[in-house]
Design brief:
This protein is an alpha/beta fold and 357 residues long. The chain is 43% helix and 19% strand. Helix 10 runs antiparallel to helix 11 and helix 11 crosses helix 12. The structure holds nicotinamide-adenine-dinucleotide (NAD).
Length: 357
């Protein structure tokens, strides 16, 4: 298979971790007979320094023209004083998400067996298993509704609009993902109060009955979901939810695993195109020292193979190689290890090379 990946490494540790993910994708291509071309562009503060803009038309065109985008991280203290709209996070990240039409955010939160001790939860809760996929609607809801301040400045109003079409397309992503996992979706809402949540329940229930009768569906209020995530996280397979609830719950779920350097993400559109990035930022405090954990970015590359390229066996191969490397102690200092960023990437590549064809 031939595919082009737009590589937007960004700032801080972005280029360090992205280099390892590219290395791993090349190892997979060699092993399985694929051809991945990497189209690199500056983005974020690095692009601002070079071109006076955190996202150039050229970089956006490269992202639009590729089969998928691999992003590192953007931002850092050097660019914090730029006007809000010109800053890396807003100009680069939000523009990319909007321009590429990425409405579905997938964030798996999983405790890797060798890293169980890193979770802040009690051992018996972790031992029951934490392997959750949060599917968050990314381009609708209260973040994109009208924001208004009353004329006297003493009142304010944010609106949370959703259409049935927006709910249905994200629900379809969640059900399809559940089919590839343990076959259960929990739709999280506040249907005892919000009209939008009632619409969500109607649309999600209807879609499940019509097209995904093999997938289990239950509904849960968001306040209860926040509690169940720390009380009994093993009860969740796929959590489907709207933009703001997903923003909050996905950070809570991520924290259950205890290690920000291990968590990948995918932002997808309906046709399989996606942007893949670790959930962490540019970590300026450790940038340039060769100690950043590249696993989140490597696992984001695995998500790219699964969701955008239709290569589930190759994605599995990367995830098995990550598990093998962790078991053998190839870990960076954030996990208590002594390996460098590139040594961890090498360890994953070696396991891919040694795996069965
Ligand atoms: P951060 O995620 O960059 O760092 C938080 C802490 O986690 C730091 O101590 C850092 O050293 C550590 N850390 C993060 N990733 C790591 C890794 N792979 N390996 C080892 N340790 C890791 O969050 P922050 O410090 O709040 O933000 C730094 C900059 O990144 C800011 O400019 C912020 O706006 C930006 N940011 C960008 C994105 C993005 O590009 N998607 C996301 C979050 C933050």
């Amino acid at each position: 298979m031939k595919k082009t990946v737009a590589v937007l490494a960004g700032d801080g540790i972005g280029p360090e971790v992205v280099a390892e993910a590219v290395k791993v994708l090349e190892a997979v291509a060699r092993k399985r007979g694929h051809e991945f071309a990497f189209d690199e562009r500056l983005v974020g503060g690095a692009s601002y320094d070079a071109f006076g803009d955190c996202l150039t038309d050229d970089a956006l065109a490269a992202a639009k023209g590729a089969d998928a985008v691999l992003l590192g991280a953007v931002g850092g203290p050097k660019w914090d004083s730029l006007p809000a709209a010109a800053r890396p996070e807003r100009r680069a990240l939000l523009t990319l998400r909007k321009e590429l039409g990425l409405f579905a955010n997938l964030r798996p939160a999983k405790v890797w067996d060798p890293l169980k001790g890193a979770s802040p939860l009690r051992a018996e809760i972790v031992d029951a298993g934490i392997d959750i996929l949060v599917v968050r609607e990314l381009t609708g809801g209260v973040y994109f509704g009208a924001h208004e301040r009353g004329p006297d400045g003493a009142s304010a109003c944010d609106t949370m609009p959703y259409s049935a079409c927006e709910v249905e397309r994200i629900a379809r992503v969640a059900f399809a993902a559940a089919r590839r996992r343990r076959g259960a979706v929990t739709c999280v809402d506040k249907a005892n109060v919000l009209e939008t949540s009632k619409l969500w329940r109607e649309v999600v229930g209807r879609l499940r009955d019509a097209e995904f009768a093999d997938v289990a569906l239950d509904f849960m209020y968001v306040d209860n979901a926040a509690m169940q995530l720390v009380r009994a996280p093993s009860r969740f397979d796929v959590i489907l939810t709207e933009n703001m609830f997903g923003d909050i719950l996905s950070d809570e779920a991520a924290q259950l695993t205890g290690s920000i350097g291990m968590l990948p993400s995918a932002s997808l559109r309906g046709d399989g195109f996606g942007m893949y990035e670790p959930i962490h930022g540019s970590a300026p405090d450790i940038a340039g020292r060769g100690i950043a954990n590249p696993m989140a970015t490597i696992l984001s590359a695995a998500m790219m193979l699964r969701h955008s390229f239709g290569l589930p066996a190759e994605a599995d191969a990367i995830e098995s190689a990550v598990l093998g490397a962790l078991r053998d102690g190839a870990t960076t200092p954030d996990l208590g290890g002594y390996s460098s960023t590139s040594a961890v990437g090498d360890a994953v590549c070696a396991r891919i090379a040694a795996s069965g064809a």
